[in-house]
Design brief:
Elements (H helix, E strand, L loop, with lengths): L7 E5 L5 H14 L11 H15 L2 E8 L2 E11 L7 E9 L8 H15 L4 E3 L7 H6 L15
Parallel strand pairs: 4-5
Antiparallel strand pairs: 1-2, 2-3, 3-4
C-alpha cells in the first residue's frame, strides 16, 4: 500500500536526529551531483559539530518529515546576521527520500523554513535550487537570481 500524505508530519528536528539528517544531506549532495571528490573521512563529525553549535545558538533550525516508519525528509533554515539591518535567511538541505516524493513534503518542509525565517526577522531568503526543486521554489515566490560560484579546485 502506498503511503498517504497524512501519514507524514513536519516538525522541528531534535539534536538526536542530526545523525540521520547527515545521511539525508549526503544523499542530497550525491543526487544533485555536488560531490566531485570523496568527502573527507570525518565529514559526519564535522557536520554534527557545526549543526549542533548552530542549533544551540538559535541561529538555525532543522525541520524533518516523519512517517510511522521514521524520518523521510529534512530541510535546514538559518539566519546570516551579516552587516545588513535585517538578517538574511538561507534554506538548504531540502531532501525527501525517493519513495516519499510527490506528496507535498518538500513544500511543507520549505514552508516550515520560511515561517521560521520570517519569525526571525529575515528580510530576504535565498537558496540554491536543484533542477528538480526549481519548480517548487518558483511556485513559492522565489526568483532565479545571479548567484555565482567559483571552483578553485580546477
Amino acid at each position: 500500500m502506498e503511503p498517504q500524505r497524512s501519514e507524514a508530519v513536519c516538525r522541528v528536528a531534535s539534536m538526536e536526529e542530526l545523525g540521520q539528517i547527515a545521511g539525508f544531506w549526503e544523499a542530497m549532495l550525491i543526487e544533485c551531483d555536488l560531490v566531485r571528490n570523496p568527502l573527507v573521512p570525518d565529514w559526519r563529525l564535522r557536520f554534527l559539530a557545526e549543526h549542533t553549535q548552530r542549533l544551540r545558538s538559535g541561529s538555525a533550525r532543522w525541520f524533518v518529515a516523519e512517517a510511522t516508519l521514521g524520518l523521510v525528509g529534512s530541510a535546514y533554515a538559518y539566519c546570516d546576521a551579516g552587516i545588513q539591518e535585517a538578517p538574511v535567511g538561507k534554506i538548504a538541505g531540502v531532501y525527501v527520500v525517493p519513495e516519499w516524493r510527490r506528496r507535498g513534503l518538500a513544500r511543507r518542509l520549505t514552508q516550515e523554513c520560511l515561517e521560521w525565517l520570517r519569525a526571525q526577522g529575515c528580510a530576504t531568503i535565498s537558496l540554491q535550487a536543484s533542477p528538480q526543486g526549481r519548480p517548487l521554489y518558483e511556485s513559492l515566490g522565489f526568483t532565479t537570481g545571479n548567484e555565482m560560484r567559483l571552483d578553485l579546485s580546477r
